[in-house]
Amino acid sequence: MPAGYIFGVYFNPKTMKRHSLLTALLLVALATTLASFDFSSTVLEQEDRNVGAFTKISLGYPANVELRRGNSHSVKVEGDKDQLNMLITEVKDGKLYIKRKDTGSWISWGSDDKRVDIYITTPTLEAVSVSGSGKLVSTDTFKGASMDLAVSGSGSIKLQADVENLTSRISGSGSIYLKGESNSASTSISGSGSLKGFDFETKEATVKISGSGSCEIKAKDSLKSTISGSGRVSYEGSPSVDSRVSGSGSVKRRS
Fold it and tell me: Could you write out the three-class secondary structure of 60-117?
C-alpha cells in the first residue's frame, strides 16, 4: 500500500504534523490556564476575633503576623474570605493557637497562595512557636522573666525582647532574629536554620548546632558552643569561649 494510506484511507503527513503541533500547543495553554486559575473567591475581609487572655502564641498557619504590646488582648485577621473561614484562632491554657480548620480532606483549593495578615496585641509574652512557613514580627519590646522561641520548618520569628532568660530552638530551615538583651540565652539549631542575634546582647550564651545551621550572637561574659557538622557560630563581644566542634564547623569572632 502506498505511503500515506492507513487502512485504505489517505492521510497527508504534513497535515497530520500540523494538527499534532496545534493539539500540543492547545494542551500547554490549557495546563497553564488551569495552573493560574483562582478557585477561591477574591473578596478580602477583616475580622476581629473574640479570644481570651494569653501569654503564648502558636502559629501553625502560613500567615504574616504582626505582634504588638498593649493593655489588652486582641486578634484581627485580614485576607481572602474563604481562607478566613478556614482559619482557627483559639486560646487554650493561656496559649493562642492559630491553625487551619481540619476538614478531613487533603484537597484544599487555593488555600496557601494568598496572603493572610494577622495583627495580635498582648500585654505580656512568654513563648512563641512557628510551625510551617508562617512569619511573626514584633514591633514592640516584650519584657519578662523568660522567653521561649521555637521554629519548625521554613518560618521565621523577629522579636524584640528584654528578659532574664531566653531559649530558642530551630528545626529545619527557619530563622530567628533577635533584638534586645538577656542575662542568659540558650540556642539549639537542628538542620540549616539560622539565628541572627548581633543586636541581642546576653551575658551567658549557650549554642548547640547539629547540621549546617548558623548562629550569630553577642555575648558579654561566656560562650559555650557545641557543633556537630558544618554549622557556624559567629560572636561579638569578649566572652570566655568554650567550644567543641565535630566536623567542619567553626566558632569565630566576628571580624
Answer: CCCCEEEEEECCCCEEEEEEEHHHHHCEEEEEECCEEEEEECCCCCCCCCCCCCCCCE
Q: How many CB atoms lie within 10 A of CB 49?
A: 18
Rounded to the nearest angstrom, the gap between the alpha carbon of residue 128 and the centroid of all alpha carbons in its chain is 12
**pLDDT tens across 88-107, in order?**
999 999 999 999 998 765 54
Name the burial class of residue 6, with classes exposed (0-12), middle (13-18) and buried (19+) by CB atoms within 10 angstroms of its CB. Answer: exposed
Higher pLDDT: 112 or 197? It is 197
Selection from 174, 175, 240 nearest residue 225 by Cα: 240
**CA 79/CA 214 separation, integer angstroms:** 34
The single residue listed with the C-alpha cell 500500500 is 1
Enter the pTM of the model. 0.82
- Residue of 162, 192, 160, 161 lying closest to 175 (CA atoms): 192
Q: Comparing 22-26, 38-42, 168-172, 243-247, which segment has the lowest mean pLDDT?
A: 38-42
The structural domains of the chain, ordered by start, are 44-102+111-253 (2.160.20.120)
Q: Name residue 129's beta-bridge partners.
A: 58, 150
Q: For the chain, how many residues are written?
A: 255
